[in-house]
Amino acid sequence: xxxxxxxxxxxxxxxxxxxxxxxxxxxxxxxxxxxxxxxxxxxxxxxxxxxxxxxxxxxxxxxxxxxxxxxxxxxxxxxxxxxxxxxxxxxxxxxxxxxxxxxxxxxxxxxxxxxxxxxxxxxxxxxxxxxxxxxxxxxxxxxxxxxxxxxxxxxxxxxxxxxxxxxxxxxxxxxxxxxxxxxxxxxxxxxxxxxxxxxxxxxxxxxxxxxxxxxxxxxxxxxxxxxxxxxxxxxxxxxxxxxxxxxxxxxxxxxxxxxxxxxxxxxxxxxxxxxxxxxxxxxxxxxxxxxxxxxxxxxxxxxxxxxxxxxxxxxxxxxxxxxxxxxxxxxxxxxxxxxxxxxxxxxxxxxxxxxxxxxxxxxxxxxxxxxxxxx
Length: 375
Prior knowledge:
Elements: E1 3-4, E2 15-20, H1 23-33, E3 40-45, E4 48-53, E5 76-79, E6 82-90, E7 102-107, E8 125-126, H2 140-149, E9 151-152, E10 157-158, E11 165-170, H3 181-194, E12 199-202, H4 211-217, H5 221-233, E13 237-241, E14 263-273, E15 279-281, E16 293-296, E17 300-304, E18 308-312, H6 315-332, H7 338-347, H8 368-373
Parallel strand pairs: 7-11, 7-12, 8-11, 12-13, 13-14, 14-16
Antiparallel strand pairs: 1-5, 2-4, 3-4, 3-6, 5-6, 9-10, 14-15, 17-18
Helix pairs in contact: 2-6, 3-5
């Protein structure tokens, strides 16, 4: 059975089932779609309803990069040469057993009372007080955590990895001139590794190219490098924002985004196209040899304190998108090493810019569907 979507981009057809179109049969197929572990489409063709599992990309409120290539309710498909109308889609992400995956968010804390995180937050850690007080006054960490696993029904949005748990680790003083920044970051990474995290998101970047920054942080970087090595040895995937120093210079990726064995993420504006109709990087995004992937980070709507929501832009928003995809991969493949996760993300990315890896997009735009469901 051949399926043609509006984009002509097909997934492998795993199964198809045809029943008479009745309310009971529609409900039956929706229940099966919710358990098949794949992106699913239910369509009406003549007097029949059809379930297609893994046949095509489906529209998702979180997979923004591939949304235009997805099938959504109301689309028309041609199945076996005849037109069919899409009645229902299921992106399949909720079916991935994500409950045992913990993502540590090293940031300004999280609004622990925000409705977007009901049942998703673990007791956190404050690297300054050594206590559990991780309430977010700045709003940055709350926004980041929402991109990973928030649920905002009133906003019509969901975080990338529904079902994961968030471990908030608060660094109260995020100023890059804070002399304790590196030791506290190292402590935060080790805490995540020792308290069940599988993925760490660090939406922070320190640019060490000036003499003042080198004077403040130079000798302390080793502590972070050792902590990152420890996290790698414990099987954690570490995702880091590349920084927002612009694309005018050859290498503007901040630390620890330019450290080995982290995934450094640039900010892709999925609403901007170049002259060839391809996606563009956001001008403020850092670039350089350390960039590994690019992801949506422009005008991203997520949670902020006081039960509110806001749009924010930056590599800080792109990084948690990738962290969420990494969490889904860790949930689906719990035996994978960090190197295997990184390789999967790089191989399934959408190559942009120069052919192959480049200093602007890295290996390309992260492709959630291909990473999770592709061959």
